[in-house]
Amino acid sequence: MSEVRRLLDGRRIMITGSSSGIGASAARLFAAEGAHVALMARRKERLDALVEEITAAGGRAVAVPGDVASDEDVERAVAVTVDTFGGLDAAFNNAGYAVAGSPIHETDRAVFDRIMDVNVRGVWNCLHSQIPAMLSTGRHAAVVNTSSIGGVRATGAAAAYVAAKHAVIGLTKAAALEYGEQGIRVNALVVGSTRTEMMEEVLAQAPDLETSFVEKSVQKRMADPVEVAQAAAWLCSDRSSFVTGASLSVDGGWSAV
Question: Which residues contact 144 (CB under 8 A, 6 or more apart)?
Fold first, then answer.
């Protein structure tokens, strides 16, 4: 009997926002599915601990602390990925920033700037540095960008966050069109309410939001981060080879109603 090939065997993947939540779950899952993972986030201690965990389980991982809002940090992360693993085959651009919603006229400009810097410029910085590395391999590649249900409709989240996640979908579609003929697929995840550390911080500021989030899901619950990571793993794999420019809903049915 032939050996069953793992979903991501041998693929070299960069994951941002990987110190907790969806990103950390993706790091563990991708490594278990055979990928070599480069982990980028601002919290070095958490990244180092995660790399140690993955390595102890027999996987390959490297930590690259940095902020996706910094083009220099992103360029360094891509360079470390290529130097460590010999190339870049896929990326999960998952880093994000959100705060509890407030009316536009009451939102501090600094909050607007940070939301845009992480969620929009961060994805732009990643695409800008990752795509040349992918093109240089001569292999098919895949990018997955994390958007949100807020990327397809107003949800009650901060208007800046809604605008930013709409922009992520726009960047995804544009990149899919520009690079499809060169073998790079680019897709987005439309993520519903997920029980991450960042979500817990938002709920601490606005506890009533949890009831609202659960009620809007057809499944009447919030997602576990690994459920989102599973969708990202499929989009990074060759099993989604005819999927590009898509916005895949992983929202418990929220966008179906």
Answer: 90, 91, 92, 93, 94, 186, 187, 188, 189, 232, 235, 236
- Across 89-168, where does the E strand assignment appear? 90-93, 141-148
Sheet containing 141-148: order of strands: 60-65, 36-41, 12-16, 90-93, 141-148, 184-191, 247-250
Tell me the C-alpha distance between 43 and 29, whole Å: 20
Domains of the chain, by residue range, sit at: 12-251
- Could you identify the residue written with the tokens 């407030």? 102
- Could you read off the pLDDT of 8-58 as tens digits, one per residue? 999 999 999 999 999 999 999 999 999 999 999 999 999 999 999 999 999
Single out the catalytic residue among 30, 92, 124, 161.
161
Residue 179 annotated as catalytic: no
Fold for 12-251, please state it: Rossmann fold (3.40.50)
Give the pair of three-digit tokens for residue 154.
């107003």
CB 63 within 8 A of CB 115: no
